[in-house]
Request: fold
Amino acid sequence: MEDWYLTLYTLLSFAAHSKVSDLDRHVVVNEDGEPIEFQNEPVILGQETVWVWGIEIQLAAMQSIAVLFSLEVEGIEPLRKRLGELAKQLKGDDDVDIRTRTEQTPS
Reply:
């Protein structure tokens, strides 16, 4: 879980740990590349991936707690499988394993 935390924290905390160069992401330019305004609202495109990560972290946490307290918990693996299917639909790629984030070679 620590690897997940370290990876996702970096990706999801850009706004909290910004630099002057990060302002470029908020500048709206015209056809000539001239700045015309700042984008004040958050960017909500592509949030599906972030939701998948959050759900996956919750499933991993449930599994870790079950192991830690020697609990028999059914249903986590089917949920992970379904989450993987949903993630594939979002990405449009049938050869992605959501738990390892690696491309799988088709058999």
